[in-house]
Write a structure and sequence with these properties.
- The structure is a homodimer.
- Chain A is of the alpha+beta class.
- Chain A has a single domain, classed as Orthogonal Bundle (Arc Repressor Mutant, subunit A).
- Chain A is 51% helix and 16% strand.
- Chain A is built from three helices and three strands; from the N terminus they run βααββα.
- Chain A has a three-stranded antiparallel sheet with strand order 1-3-2.
- In chain A, strand 2 and strand 3 form a beta hairpin.
- The termini of chain A are far apart.
- At the A-B interface, helix 3 of A face helix 3 of B.
- The first copy, chain A, binds a DNA duplex through helix 1, helix 2 and strand 3.
DNA sequence: CGCGTATATGTAGAAGGATGAGGTATGAAA
DNA sequence: TTTCATACCTCATCCTTCTACATATACGCG
């Protein structure tokens, strides 16, 4: 969703973008990506329309809906809280053993 | 596993510890915790023995094995790499939109 | 003594999502 | 013309989580 927030983009390009940003550290499998996009569309967090892509072929471009934007913000905060807490546990909260 | 790394501890106490460290932000359900401990024990990442707990009752105390210690270290690094990359994407890699 | 509460472990069923494999189709280049 | 990159999709399987339930013991209180 964060990638889609940068502007309308189709699924295949999302995967490339993530791989590129993460310098190949993260790759989203197509078998995960497309169902996920369908779920987000079904929940009306994303909206899709068919348009010719850069290569001239038709592709399904996704955009954030208003709900999607709100959802992304709150979930980003949740993600930060969650990883902060996990970080606390992994660091051992100053009791540094290991 | 990181909590177990602090010293032998039984399942119930692990849940309390995590909840305490996270100031109630994270609570591990018993239905997730016990099967997870069983899986880790099966994979020989944890070892268990029955001992009387602080309250006098018998409880199953878990400890990291050598494999568990190694596993924890590499997985902690993986976790850091993963969350760093997700952080990059969520921040938009300096293209700051949203 | 009986009762409730905190302690302590576990299982079962349903639901959700990732994975790996496979399938389809098009446009461009070799 | 065959191969490659693009672009979409589905399916079976596995793994994990969640909720709910089930069991049992120690301790304090009235």
């Amino acid at each position: 969703m964060r990638v889609v927030a940068l502007g309308p983009i189709h699924g295949y390009a999302i995967a490339q973008r993530i791989q590129q940003i993460s310098r190949d550290a993260l790759q989203v499998q197509q078998g995960s990506l497309y169902p996920a996009l369908h779920r987000l569309e079904y929940k009306r967090l994303l909206a899709a329309k068919w348009q010719p892509s850069e290569t001239g072929r038709d592709a399904k471009f996704y955009e954030l809906t208003a709900r999607g934007r709100a959802y992304l913000i709150t979930e980003t905060e949740n993600w930060k809280r969650f990883t902060d807490v996990v970080g606390l546990i992994l660091k051992g909260t100053a009791e540094g053993v290991l």
